[in-house]
Amino acid sequence: MKIAIVGTGYVGLVSGTCFAEMGVDVTCVDIDANKINNLIKGIIPIYEPGLEDMVLRNVKAERLHFTTNLTSVLNDIQVVFSAVGTPPDADGSADLQYVLEVARTIGQNMQQYILLVTKSTVPVGTASLVRQTIQTELDKRGVSIDFDVASNPEFLKEGDAIKDFMSPDRVVVGVESEKAKELITKLYRPFLLNNFRVIFMDILSAEMTKYAANAMLATRISFMNDMANLCELVGADINMVRKGIGTDQRIGGKFLYAGCGYGGSCFPKDVKALIQTADKNGYDLRVLKAVENVNAYQKQVLFHKLEKHFKSDLAGKTIAIWGLSFKPNTDDMREAPSLVLIEKLLQAGCKVRAFDPVAMHEAKQIVHSKMADLIQTDSSKIYFANDIYDAVLDADALMLVTEWKEFRMPSWGVVKKSMKGVLVLDGRNIYDKSEMQEFGFTYEPIG
Ligand SMILES: NC(=O)c1ccc[n+]([C@@H]2O[C@H](COP(=O)([O-])OP(=O)(O)OC[C@H]3O[C@@H](n4cnc5c(N)ncnc54)[C@H](O)[C@@H]3O)[C@@H](O)[C@H]2O)c1
Ligand SMILES: O=c1ccn([C@@H]2O[C@H](COP(=O)(O)OP(=O)(O)O[C@H]3O[C@H](CO)[C@@H](O)[C@H](O)[C@H]3O)[C@@H](O)[C@H]2O)c(=O)[nH]1
What we know:
Elements: E1 2-6, H1 10-21, E2 25-29, H2 33-40, H3 51-60, E3 64-67, H4 71-74, E4 79-82, H5 97-109, E5 114-118, H6 126-141, E6 147-151, H7 161-166, E7 170-174, H8 178-188, E8 197-201, H9 203-234, H10 238-246, H11 267-280, H12 286-298, H13 301-309, E9 318-322, H14 337-347, E10 351-355, H15 360-370, H16 372-375, E11 382-384, H17 388-391, E12 397-400, H18 412-418, E13 423-426, H19 433-438, E14 442-444
Parallel strand pairs: 1-2, 1-4, 2-3, 4-5, 5-6, 7-8, 9-10, 9-12, 10-11, 12-13, 13-14
Helix pairs in contact: 1-3, 5-6, 9-11, 9-12, 11-12
Nicotinamide-adenine-dinucleotide binds next to helix 1 and helix 5.
């Protein structure tokens, strides 16, 4: 079977490569010529564990191809997946310009039946817009060609993307024709050996399922962060509370980790977009608004702890940050809590020494463009360190922001000698309090 995937980002490249791994002939399409040229040369644009090997293997086997020209493959295939970006508009709703552009290109150029499957996260009702857009282009051409639209939202997590795609808990598909259902069933059949279900439903419910899933996960995190903040005030331990409630099968143990806020390209934007969808339908999603507020507060919690410790006298202090990406195993910096902290530290007159195993390049670019006004007079205000020990040199405090594996067991003796101060703020609760105290640190986790 031959398919095309439009949009060669995290979702498009991972999905395309995984379909190719299962024997499907896949062409990945992107408007970014630089990205496509690099992929043709074997240069992978994102950091995702295991992806590079899998891309190279499938390119070599001639099952995975790259092009900037969707039209050139359109008449050789029956199924097109759209995995282009849906970034937030100024009001927080999803910007559908890329999704509709793909539909337009298809309507303008298709010569035979096409099933267009939207994998991007799109507001409920988008499939109708996609259908209308294709139909309008066909009408302009004065031709009548059969086509279908479907919704197949993606649930993969960055850093675990290949495992999530190959063995998901489930695949959700919204269809409105038997033909579309058959094509998608055929495509996912090889994956079913990995023991998951394809759940077919109507398109509106499939579109809604994606937002409801992300909203529920974000809600769990904000709920736990709220509980963590209360635990601190009453002297309870959020980790014990987490274990205590997570063992209740109705609650479950996953996505219950308190921390310094959720980031990434999905939760923040999808929570906003769902609030917008509700507003447009005259409904106030009060729970999700609270989820957002808690998260905005939580991204500043480590800074507030620092202020409290130094009695707001932060000017001139050197603060080390371990972990910049929004979560481990990715170089993605979108909505990363580290960015909020760096900005607040620079505004308070601190010097920042930052380190991340993978996201240094992205982090540097963002800090230098978005915080230019804060560092222009003195670029030494932020230093991107060579490793974890370089980062803590002469630091008054250390903040652990992203729980990369290599931060889990540092040589605390070396860290202690290198630091000027003793404060360690653990934004992901990965260290052992008594061990930290034995080393002489003032240790503060979340909750
Ligand atoms: N990143 C994730 O972990 C994840 C997981 C599940 C769902 N999603 C959703 O999937 C969608 C894609 O996310 P992403 O993170 O992969 O985005 P991304 O920004 O990494 O990639 C999108 C790609 O689409 C390309 N593009 C834009 N317009 C195009 C067009 N007309 N033709 C061809 N290519 C075009 C861009 O150049 C870019 O390379 C979003 O809706 C997102 O919400 C993302
Ligand atoms: O218990 C937890 C779990 C996660 N996080 C934070 O939540 C954010 C998101 O993490 P995660 O969900 O693992 O990463 P994403 O790659 O953003 O994946 C989410 O967003 C994707 C895009 O929609 C969905 O496909 C996935 O199912 C959904 O988990 C990160 O900042 C994490 O640090 C916590 O604070 N506590």
